[in-house]
């Protein structure tokens, strides 16, 4: 499984293929492996209490998925991250769950997938 973090207001279930702004601006959708979600959340979403964790089965995606170096200001120690070069197919979504921060704004607990 791979994971995508999204602000609740931006998630549009039932609207067909999901196409966040990054698909148009960067050409791909950012994902994380489950073991890097907390780090990603703390780097880019600290203090956001309105996040959702979208869990996706990569075998059910129709667009190309590539594991590439992190895109953004942090190099993340050379770790590779999944980038989807197309929309998220609704049939690939396995779970959508709240992903709130702790009272201090940090993300410390990963939901059970």
Describe the protein's architecture and organization.
This protein is of the alpha+beta class. The chain has a single domain (2-12, 27-98), classed as Protein of unknown function DUF952 (ADP-ribosylation fold, Alpha-Beta Barrel), CATH 3.20.170.20. The protein has helices spanning 21-25, 37-44; strands spanning 2-7, 29-30, 51-56, 65-69, 80-84, 93-98. Strands 1-3-6 form a three-stranded antiparallel β-sheet, with no helix packed on it. A three-stranded antiparallel β-sheet has the order 2-5-4. The model has no long low-confidence stretch (mean pLDDT 90).
Give the gist of this structure.
This protein is α+β, with helices and mostly antiparallel strands and 113 residues long. The protein has helices at residues 21-25, 37-44; strands at residues 2-7, 29-30, 51-56, 65-69, 80-84, 93-98.
Write the layout of secondary structure elements.
Layout lengths: L1 E6 L13 H5 L3 E2 L6 H8 L6 E6 L8 E5 L10 E5 L8 E6 L15
Give the C-level CATH assignment.
Alpha Beta
Strand order of the largest sheet: 1-3-6
CATH topology-level fold name = ADP-ribosylation fold
Number of domains: 1
Descriptive key words:
single chain, 113 residues, alpha+beta, ADP-ribosylation fold, 6 strands, globular
């Amino acid at each position: 499984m791979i994971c995508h973090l999204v602000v609740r207001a931006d998630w549009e279930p039932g609207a067909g293929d999901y196409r966040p702004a990054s698909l148009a601006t960067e050409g791909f959708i950012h994902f994380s492996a489950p073991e890097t979600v907390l780090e990603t959340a703390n780097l880019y979403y600290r203090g956001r209490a309105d996040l959702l964790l979208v869990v996706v089965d990569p075998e059910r995606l129709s667009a190309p998925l590539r594991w590439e170096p992190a895109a953004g200001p942090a190099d993340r120690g050379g770790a590779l991250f999944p980038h989807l070069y197309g929309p998220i197919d609704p049939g690939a979504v396995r779970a959508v769950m709240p992903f709130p921060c702790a009272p201090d704004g940090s993300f410390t607990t990963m939901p059970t997938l």
